Amino acid sequence: MRKELAECLKEFFPIFSRAAKDGPFEARGFECDEGWYTILDRFGRDLTLLRLRGIKVVQIKQGLGGLRITLRYPFWLSKKKIEKAESVVLDAELASYKTCEACGGRGCRRELTDRTIIRCDMCFKSEPRP
After folding, report:
1. Residue 119: φ, ψ to 5°
2. Per the domain annotation, does 117 fall within a domain?
3. Of 37, 72, 115, 119, whose CB count within 10 A is highest?
4. Rounded distance, CA 9 to CA 44, Å?
């Protein structure tokens, strides 16, 4: 993801500024393309609306074609609140399977020889092949 888009997400949603110190998000940030920006924007908004304190981002990346979001919860957060947060995570991850990671349009799962991606027809045609 382009630096300016990542900074925009961090500016508007505090969850993206609270990275787990020992997690990959602290060092590498968003490990996905900008087509999923809208999904991450919605994720940040929905998680912020839950008003949960102490949650830290461990990792946000593309994996097996879809978005993978890993959060760390404080020990004192109730199971019910964790379930609500995980529901927001699941919504974002499921949305990624229908969204082109490159442009944000409607996409589907595509198998390449070395990886699985989510792309629309136009972006898939322009995808470099190994």
Report:
1. -140, 150
2. no
3. 119
4. 8
